[in-house]
Amino acid sequence: MKQVLLGRVREPSQCMKRLTGFPAPQFMTPVKYLVNNGLYPQALRASTDSLDPRLTDQVYSLFTKSGYFLDIFLGSYLISHFSKLCDLQRAHQFFMDMPETDIVVRNTLISGYAKSQEIENAFRLFRSLRHCELKPDIFTVSSLIKACNFTQNNEITHVVSIKIGFSSGAFVSS
């Protein structure tokens, strides 16, 4: 839309530049804005709102090329997001790219495997806790119980929960 100022036709961006000294901002997506300003961690998180995993892959590529790495909070968020979308291959890839993980990150992925009925992967990740010197917690056992409900084989989880000291919890008996 053009405006007429003092008999001359001007573009809106020219008017804005004349009034403020800056050109009019162009419309751009939040992800593009964040990437253009070098805010890669924020752009990576915002890219998940689009529900297009290719956009997240592109932003993640820029993220890693810029020297960033997934911290526990951002990694856990991405793993949770892709687990909810049943894209466990991507969730696992983000897990593998993390330089360090904690029990919360591992529980997130175990829960994702359980919800997608990937019982073997859930137990494989559970067994890897011993190698990382991380102690399973109540959320770990709860996710394993959910995984076993699909196979009607709760005895395994019951034995594991007793061995790690969760036998008195109400959720184990229910």
UniProtKB/TrEMBL annotation:
The keyword Repeat is annotated on this UniProt entry: yes
Pfam families in alphabetical order: PPR_2
UniProt keywords, alphabetically: Repeat
GO molecular function: RNA binding
Leader sequence residues: none
Keyword Ion transport listed: no
GO BP terms in the entry: RNA modification
Alphabetical list of Gene3D superfamilies matching this protein: Tetratricopeptide repeat domain
Spans of repeat PPR: 102-136
Protein's recorded name: Pentatricopeptide repeat-containing protein
